[in-house]
Amino acid sequence: MLRAVILGTGFYVPENIVTNDDLSKMMDTNDQWITERSGIRERRWLAMGEDNRTIMTGSDMGARAAEMAIEAAGIDRGEIDQVIFATLNPDVAFPGNGVFIEELLGLNTAGAMDIRNQCTGFVYGLAAADGFIRSGTARTVLVIGSEIQSTAMDKTTRGSDMSVLFGDGAGAVIVQGVDGDRGIIASVLHSQGRYARDLWLEAPIATMPERINAEMMAEGRHFPQMNGPMVFKHATRRFCESINEVLEKGGFKPQDIDLLVPHQANQRITDAVGQRMGLGPDKVFSNIAKYGNTTAATIPIALAEAELEGRLKEGDLVVTVAFGSGFTWGANLIRW
Ligand code: COA
């Protein structure tokens, strides 16, 4: 049976470390508040160049992560016939970042698709890669999650509920069609648009001829807005629901999971989900303390780190699960 197997993983995070103490010099916050509420101790924010632009783009970070994944997979990059790029912060309004990967990696006109599902982007991307492979549309898919959050945040006290949580980074996987039992077994994907305004970035807005104006900027409507407690409540519930749903689809139970790789939104969410699913910390991957929430990049970064740490072995049953703006949520069940 043809299955979509993750052959290699890779990640890239900027060198520039921003600690909670660094943030307390920019806004009214402190290490204790951030650590207790989120488990985050530091995050990576891209350094700024002399031209007042980040020294790398989201595509550049994605390409670095992809190079590592290609090497780990042991494939020739010419085998990649489809790129799927998940980000909520594309380098420019259009085209999406996928085409920049085609150029940066020299992929010889491979297909490029962009996914705008925020924190759930990688889970949707993996499901799409599985569909492309099983249908014969592609054989080797490069799935990337990459985000520059540091330029999108309100780094004053007004935005302190959001800006302390997010970081920059990229992760990537090579997915290839292989006959056998390994690979993506099932995926589940969901959305609920009635909560779109509880975690969103409103401006620039397409229905206004000028897209954005001084009043909107003064009100901070070009920065993301979040109803934190509402997101927290829904995330915890939807994480557990999707894990159970995807397990049921594959004919498995929570105790069969070797490693749960959740979207890194908040350590308290991760702990609550692990507890409700009956999974101890050895079965739930976490690196949020180092990187914060890198939205679409958290899961592929975590997969790459889990492999490097020897926590992912061939034959392991792995679940990736995410929740984010939309609201959107979903999970993938994978025989590693
Ligand atoms: N530092 C210090 N104080 C802060 C702060 C910061 N960075 N950000 C907000 N506060 C203050 C608020 O102004 C508020 O003050 P008030 O009580 O005087 O009005 C207070 O902290 C709110 O605290 P609390 O109610 O304890 O917040 P919380 O427990 O709801 O935690 C979040 C806030 C954002 C950490 C939490 O809601 C959360 O993690 N939500 C989910 C976020 C998430 O995962 N988003 C991405 C989803 S993919």
Summarize the structure.
The protein has 336 residues and is of the alpha/beta class. It has 11 helices and 13 strands. The site of coenzyme A has 20 residues, from helix 2, helix 6, helix 8 and strand 12.
What's the structural blueprint in terms of helices and strands?
Layout: E1 2-12, E2 17-19, H1 20-24, H2 31-38, E3 42-44, H3 58-73, E4 82-86, H4 98-105, E5 111-115, H5 121-135, E6 140-147, H6 160-163, E7 169-179, E8 183-191, E9 199-200, H7 214-218, E10 225-226, H8 228-250, E11 259-262, H9 267-277, H10 288-291, H11 298-308, E12 317-324, E13 328-335
Parallel strand pairs: 4-5, 4-6, 11-12
Antiparallel strand pairs: 1-7, 2-3, 6-7, 8-13, 9-10, 12-13
The chain binds coenzyme A.
